[in-house]
Amino acid sequence: DGVRGAALVWLLGLAEADFTRLMSYSRTWRHRIALVRGWALLALPLFLIGLAVSPAVAQVRDNRAGLVVVHSDGRVLTRCVSFSEEQITGLTLLQRSGLSFASASGPLGNTVCALDGEGCPASDCFCECKGTPCVYWAYFLGSPEGGWVYANVGASMRQVHDGDVDAWVWGDGHQLPPPMSFEAICGGASPAPVDV
């Protein structure tokens, strides 16, 4: 760390100047050896204190999560999204995927109205729910085995972690996304942390 290094150089500079001055006053070798030992005993605790207060080595981890989008015509899109945070929301995952989307904010968070050119405008998010069937962007959460569970929270409330997979299906909420694991989308485990 640059600040700690500068402080040590400054302290050692003062110590060196004082040490040189004291050594010039010393007349015997025995006295000079005692002074060297004294400075060493003083410097060791300062060095250990410097180590103790130094910040821990920072780690940058490239976390990844998978995203699956299923259109009404059966097209399936996948994205592997990297993020440095410990967790992000499902909405942030969608934003960082690079896919275009429109959402509307409501009392339960954000609702995805249109995704990748399909859906409803944000001004009428449930434009396809005026009759039967009610068609909308249904939100699903992936299981470790590649299965799916209908999300019980909205994307803005969902906390996505490394290795998670989210899916969006344009339909009536009963059609599940195809089975798809994190490995199938992102190509395996996340890389190990990197020290910086």
Determine the strand fraction and express it as a percent band: 25-35%
Across the major sheet, the strand order is 3-2-11-8-9
> C-alpha Rg, in Å?
30 Å
Molecular shape: elongated
Give the helix level as a range of percent: 25-40%
Rounded mean pLDDT score = 79
Structure description:
Helix 1 (2-25) runs antiparallel to helix 2. The chain has 4 helices and 12 strands. Mean pLDDT is 79; it is low at 6-12, 54-58 and 190-196. By secondary structure, it is an alpha+beta fold. It is elongated, with a radius of gyration of 30 Å. 31% of the residues lie in helices and 30% in strands. Strand 2 and strand 3 form a beta hairpin. It has a 5-stranded mixed sheet with strand order 3-2-11-8-9. It has a 3-stranded antiparallel sheet with strand order 5-6-7, with helices on one face. Strands 1-12 form a two-stranded antiparallel ribbon. The protein starts with a helix and ends with a strand.
Give a quick summary of the entry.
The protein has helices spanning 2-25, 29-53, 90-96, 182-186, and strands spanning 59-60, 63-70, 76-83, 87-89, 101-106, 109-115, 118-119, 136-142, 148-150, 159-161, 165-171, 194-195. With 196 residues, it is an alpha+beta fold.
List the helices and strands and how they pair.
Layout: H1 2-25, H2 29-53, E1 59-60, E2 63-70, E3 76-83, E4 87-89, H3 90-96, E5 101-106, E6 109-115, E7 118-119, E8 136-142, E9 148-150, E10 159-161, E11 165-171, H4 182-186, E12 194-195
